[in-house]
Amino acid sequence: MNFWTKDILEKALPEAKFHNFPKDFSANGIRVTHLDFDYGNIAIVRKPEEKVGIRESFLPSLGDKISALVCNDYKYFSKYNLPIIEVKDVNDVVIRMAFFIRRNYSGTVIDITGSSGKTTTTRMCYDVLSDYGASSNLNQANTNFGIAWNMTLYNTENKYWVNETSLGGGMDLNSVLTKPDIAVVTNIAPVHLKANQPLINVAIQKSKIFTAMDIGKTAIIYNEMAYKDVVLRAAANKYLKVITFGENEESDVRILTGDRNSINLFGKLYKYSDNPVPKHILLDAAIVLAIVQTLGLPIEPALEKLRNFNSIVGRGQVTSGNIDTHRKITMIDESFNANPLSMKFSLDGFNKMFGKNKNKMLILGDMAEGGPETVQQHLDLLEDINKIKPTRVLLCGEQMSVLWDKVKDLYNGKYYTNVEELLADILGWVEDDDYIFIKASHSIELFKAVIKLRDMIRANN
Q1: pLDDT tens per residue, range 202-220
Q2: DSSP one-letter string for 110-158
Q3: Same domain flag for 249 and 339
Q4: Which of 48, 92, 90, 84 is CA-nearest to residue 66?
Q5: Residue 135 shares a structural domain with residue 245
Q6: In a 3-state reduction of DSSP, which class is residue 246?
Q7: Cα angle vertex 356, ends 354, 357, to 5°?
Q8: For position 129, which CATH number holds?
C-alpha cells in the first residue's frame, strides 16, 4: 500500500503548491537519483544549473515509473504533464516528508552507527528482521539527507525500520529524524579525522545517536572500544537500558573465537560455526542477536539466518575461480574502505580463515583520514602482517610507504604509489592456488584490482 496520497502530502508539505494531481493519486516515496528508480516513486528533478535532484535528461528513460515531480519551477517542468509539487527548497521537502512519516510510524526503529561494521551489521539485522517485515537503507545512503529520502520509501506497515547512520549531516540531527528505539555503536576508531583532531571527538559525536531517544529505550555498545566511558555516559544521561557486547567476560553478549566460535547471549551459549569465523563477523552477529533478544523474537531462526549470511561486495566477499588456464585464486574483497580497527579485524579474519594455506598475498592500501597518528597506525599493521606470514605483500598509496620500509626486507613484494601502477603489475604477482586479501580506503581505488581479477574469474569459469 502506498503511504503518500495527495491529502497526506499536503499535510507534510503545507507550503507547497500542487499541480495536476488526480483524486486517486498515491506514491511510495522520494527518489533523488535515477538509479534504482521504481514504479510509484516521486522524482526530485533539477534544471541544468541546479545541483540536487535527477537531471532532466534522465526523465524520458524513467517513463511511467514516475508518479509525480518535485521541483521549484512548475512552468519549466509543466511540459511533462505529470503531477507536480512546487516548492522553494527541494532539500526541505525530503526532510519534512521523513519527519512526517516517522511521526506516523508505530513500529520499532533501530539505528546503527560506528567507525566500522555498521554496513554489514545493518544488512545482517535487516536479513533477520525481514521475516517479520522490515525496511532499511541498504543503499548505504547514511547521511541525514540520505536517511531522510530512504525513510520516505519505507513501508509503514513493517514492524521494523533499520537505519545505517553516519556523522554526515550531524548525528544529533539523524537521531531527531529517526527517533530510534534501539541504537547501536559498533566501535570507535580513527577515521575521517581532521589534522590534530583527537579520537575522543569521534566518541562524542557518535554518542549523539542517543539524542532523541526516550527513557528506557536500548543502547547496544561495544565493550572494548576506545572511549567507551564517553559513550556509556551519554547513554546514562538519557536513562537508556545498556547492553554490551565483545570478547571480555563482562560483556552481556560475548563472542568466543577459535575452536568454539560461539556467542554467549546473557549466559546462554549458542554455537555459531564449527569453521573459522572472522572476529568482526562474530561481533556483528552478536549485535544482531542482542537486538533480537531485545525485541523478544526467537533466537534460533535468527542464528540460522546469520550463519548463512553472505558478505557484501567490498566488505569481505569471497570469490574463487580460475583467472586463466593455469591459475586458480581465492580473493577476499575488503576494498570498500579501511581504518585501523577494520583493517586489524579483517586481517585477523583472513588469518583465521586462510592462514594455514601456503600461498597468501596481501594487497593493502592507505587508511585515509587517520588523523595525527596516521603514520603509527600504518606501522602498527606490521604485527598483523607477521601473524599471517604472507608469501607476497603489495602496498599502495602515500601512507603505505612508511610500512614498506619495514616490510621490504621481510617479504617478497613491491610498493606502488598509486593503483594504476599496481594494476599494470598485478598479474605478474599472482600464483596458482593463491589466497588474495585486498583492503584500503575507498579513495585509494583498490576496488579496481578486485574488478580486474573478478572479471577474469567470470571470463574463465
Answers
A1: 999 999 999 999 999 999 9
A2: EEEE-SSSHHHHHHHHHHHHGGG-EEE-TT---SHHHHHHHHHHS-TTS
A3: no
A4: 84
A5: yes
A6: strand
A7: 70
A8: 3.40.1190.10
| Cα(66)–Cα(39) distance, integer angstroms | 6
Mark which of 19, 54, 89 sits at the end of a domain: 89
One-letter amino acid identity for 99?
F
In our burial notation (b when 16+ CB lie closer than 10 A, e otherwise), range 402-413 reads bbbeebeeebeb
Contact 314, 338 (CB under 8 A): no
Confidence of residue 169 (pLDDT cuts 50, 70, 90): confident
Q: Which pLDDT band, with edges at 50, 70 and 90, does 110 fall under?
A: very high
Q: In which band, very low, low, confident or very high, does the pLDDT at 336 lie, cut at 50, 70 and 90? A: confident
- The predicted-structure confidence for 34-71, as pLDDT tens digits, reads as follows 988 999 999 999 999 888 999 999 999 999 999 999 99
The amino acid that residue 325 corresponds to is T
Helix (H) or strand (E) holding 69: strand 66-71
| Phi, psi (rounded to 5 degrees) for 111 | -110, 135
- Alpha-carbon distance of 363 to 404, in angstroms, equals 12
Residue with cell 585464486: 329
Containing domain of residue 424, as a range? Answer: 317-459
Q: How far apart are CA 454 and CA 410, in angstroms?
A: 29
Which of 177, 260, 253, 190 has its CA nearest to residue 221? 253
pTM for this predicted structure: 0.85
Name the strand (E) or helix (H) holding 283: helix 279-295
Q: 3-class DSSP state for residue 20?
A: coil
Residue 100 in domain: no
Say whether 96 sits in a helix, a strand or coil: helix
